[in-house]
UniProtKB/TrEMBL annotation:
<protein>
    <recommendedName>
        <fullName>Thioredoxin-like fold domain-containing protein</fullName>
    </recommendedName>
</protein>
Amino acid sequence: MSKTLVEFINTCSCCDEHIQTIKNTAQKHGDQVEVKIYYAGKDVDYLKKYGMVTKGTMIIDGRKKIDNLSKTIIEKAIEDALRS
């Protein structure tokens, strides 16, 4: 079974809360979810894949981008990805 990759590009300090929400949600699902966090200004790995990002953005399996984030939206997006 392949893992669901959840990437988050943190662009500012106000996005820090989303990191913990993503990690907590992923932890509920054990080894099924892999989390990768990028910090704008420090990490450049995501630029080749996604280009310039100016707003905290969660990306699931390299395809689904979500930048309007809340705890509910994060949890639902990860659970939907696991079901598909």
